[in-house]
Specification:
14 strands, Aminopeptidase, globular, binds coenzyme A, alpha+beta, 12-stranded mixed β-sheet, 2 domains, two-stranded antiparallel sheet
């Protein structure tokens, strides 16, 4: 049997003969996620992903699929930031559970690495996920340069990455919060926190929206997005600076909407009218899950307890908008004590780890 690895073409539309390979690729990706996590809550649907394949203005993307006749049995994807000066490319590899340890992952990784080099990226990164049971594996452990977390060296993703010359650059803690039945509590907590604000904190106005930001906030929101790329701790991983402007903010909103995702944003506005911080919840279609993506309070505005206010404001909005959603998931650097402290206070609990790798 011969395995064929070739670049994946994104079709114009789903449900057409041209879309069959893309749809098989997305299904294989979901199967790999399920093999790691035991569920598909972190997977994308084809309709969510397709718009991202069609818009490479800000994030470049090239996928490769491994085929055994017409069966998709593996995938690799390269993604890269398009901003001037960007040096990195992120590679994701996955192989169907029944086809592992036959060299398919290696062949896919090599193909992705060649592509990344061909577009001039000299720093290669990637990630692998470790579910709670995987963290308990016996044997030697790998520690990230910062923080106290570790993962077993024998975890399949870790063994594969280290075998290919990647070193562990950072561990992210995956945390989950079940929100069912808690929305009244979030409302009371927000009211208490608002009532207890001191004058410096009360000088910030809280503004929230769904899907599309108010026009007058776009420029300063773009500044906050750019900081989101570089402010959080990065451990031993090289992070590219991202150039953001109002158009990029709008493009991101349009992509989310095109993919069927609802976005809830809570922002704090400084007395001068600029965004001082924001937090984002993303609601994928056909799911009870919610993803807590960006949360940032910009440097000059820290120390006013805005982080917790932002999160509570958005949790209240979630209860008003989508009370049927049951679980929020978030990824934080294991050494990001301030962010983790807020999440733990809200009741988030550990659900596994994501390991970030960088080729040495
Ligand atoms: C990691 C993954 C992509 C490997 O795919 P694969 O096709 O099995 O990989 P290969 O057969 O090319 O393995 C190459 C080498 O990696 C190492 N390796 C891979 N899986 C391993 C495992 N489960 N235990 C120990 N070593 C492993 C071995 O050194 C292996 O060589 P060997 O089989 O000659 O001993 C696959 O297990 C997978 O899809 N896992 C879930 C997704 C994931 O973690 N992706 C991120 C990878 S960074």
């Amino acid at each position: 049997m011969s395995i064929d690895i070739r670049p994946l073409d994104a079709p114009e539309r789903l449900g057409t003969p041209d879309a069959v390979e893309f749809e098989a690729y997305v299904e294989l990706t979901a199967q790999v996620e399920e093999s790691v996590w035991g569920h598909r809550r972190f997977s994308y649907e084809a309709a969510e992903l397709l718009p991202e394949f069609h818009d490479d203005r800000y994030t470049g993307r090239q996928a490769f699929a491994a085929w055994d006749a017409d069966r998709c049995i593996g995938r690799a994807e390269v993604q890269w930031e398009q901003s001037e000066g960007a040096r990195t490319a992120e590679i994701t590899v996955g192989v169907a559970a029944a086809e592992r340890r036959r060299g398919i992952g290696t062949a896919l990784l090599r193909r992705a690495e060649v592509h990344a080099r061909s577009i001039g990226r000299e720093v290669l990164t990637g990630f692998s996920d470790v579910p709670p049971a995987g963290l308990e594996l016996a044997g030697p452990r790998l520690e990230a340069p910062d923080g106290t977390g570790s993962i077993p060296a024998a975890d399949p993703g870790a063994a594969f990455a280290t075998r290919h010359g990647y070193r562990l650059g950072q561990l992210e803690r995956v945390s989950g919060l079940t929100v069912t039945g808690r929305f009244d509590e979030f409302r009371s907590l927000l009211a208490e926190r608002l009532a207890a604000r001191d004058a410096a904190s009360a000088a910030y106005r809280l503004v929230g929206w769904i899907d599309r930001a108010p026009e007058e906030l776009l420029d300063s929101l773009a500044v906050a997005h750019a900081s989101m790329a570089t402010d959080p701790p990065a451990g031993g991983i090289t992070i590219d600076e991202e150039a953001w402007d109002a158009d990029r903010v709008r493009a991101g909103e349009t992509l989310a909407l095109a993919g069927g995702r609802t976005t809830l944003v809570q922002a704090a506005i400084a007395p001068d009218g600029a965004v001082a911080g924001y937090t984002e919840l993303s609601l994928p279609p056909n799911s009870v899950a919610v993803f807590q993506w960006d949360t940032i309070v910009l440097g000059p505005h820290r120390g006013h307890r805005l982080g917790m206010l932002l999160k509570l404001g958005n949790l209240v909005r979630l209860g008003e908008t989508a009370p049927e959603r049951s679980d929020i998931y978030t990824w934080n650097a294991d050494e990001n004590e301030h962010m983790l402290a807020i999440n733990i206070a809200l009741g988030f609990t550990p659900r596994g780890m994501s390991a970030e790798w960088q080729r040495a």
